[in-house]
């Protein structure tokens, strides 16, 4: 039985499906779902149209199943490598179901063992700036300070840095 949530239907099978009646399409659709979910190979009896259509669809379902299993396996190995290296997530301590939440046995209860020492200074050096921003005062005085600071910007003249000669 597959763990996959579904199966793919590809557009390139449409020409084959156009030749089938609606009853045959329904039978084929049920066969696709049964095969993809439960690995039940359909028996279409003497209906050659369904048998031919199935011959085109079955390899695609098999290919998709193989690819899904390969990707699932790779992801499981990556998760085991990531979580198994420090023993943080083992089947015993990972919560798999919300109804199983128990702070004593689940992952959130495990303390970390990483070091938190830092060589970065935690104090802020004193600023050499003497001006305060925003300027003290009411709204109008702050607005006027902005206008004074922005004066000369936007007059379409090229920027000329001030030089001290």
Describe the structure in brief:
This protein is mostly helical and 165 residues long.
Question: How are the elements arranged and paired?
Answer:
Layout: H1 14-18, H2 22-38, H3 48-84, H4 139-150
Helix pairs in contact: 2-3
Can you walk me through this structure?
The chain has helices at residues 14-18, 22-38, 48-84, 139-150. It has a domain at 11-89. With 165 residues, the chain is mostly helical. It contains 4 helices and no strands.
Quaternary structure of the protein:
single chain
Assess the beta-strand content as a share of residues: under 5%
- Global mean pLDDT: 75
Q: Report how far apart the termini are.
A: 86 Å
Helix content: 40-55%
Shape verdict: elongated
Ranges with pLDDT <50 over ≥5 residues?
none
The largest β sheet comes out as: none
Radius of gyration: 35 Å
């Amino acid at each position: 039985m597959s763990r996959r949530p579904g199966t793919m239907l590809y557009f390139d099978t449409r020409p084959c499906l156009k030749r089938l009646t609606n009853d045959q399409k329904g039978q084929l659709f049920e066969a696709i779902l049964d095969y993809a979910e439960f690995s039940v190979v359909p028996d279409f009896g003497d209906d050659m149209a369904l048998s031919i259509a199935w011959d085109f669809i079955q390899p695609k379902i098999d290919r998709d199943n193989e690819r899904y299993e390969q990707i699932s396996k790779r992801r499981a190995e990556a998760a085991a490598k990531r979580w198994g290296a420090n023993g943080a997530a083992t089947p015993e301590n990972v919560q798999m179901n919300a109804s199983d939440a128990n702070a004593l046995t689940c992952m959130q209860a495990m303390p970390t063992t990483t070091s938190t020492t830092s060589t970065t200074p935690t104090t802020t050096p004193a600023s050499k700036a003497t001006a305060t921003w925003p300027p003290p005062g009411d709204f109008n005085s702050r607005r006027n300070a902005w206008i004074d600071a922005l004066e000369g910007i936007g007059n379409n003249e090229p920027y000329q840095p001030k030089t001290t000669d």
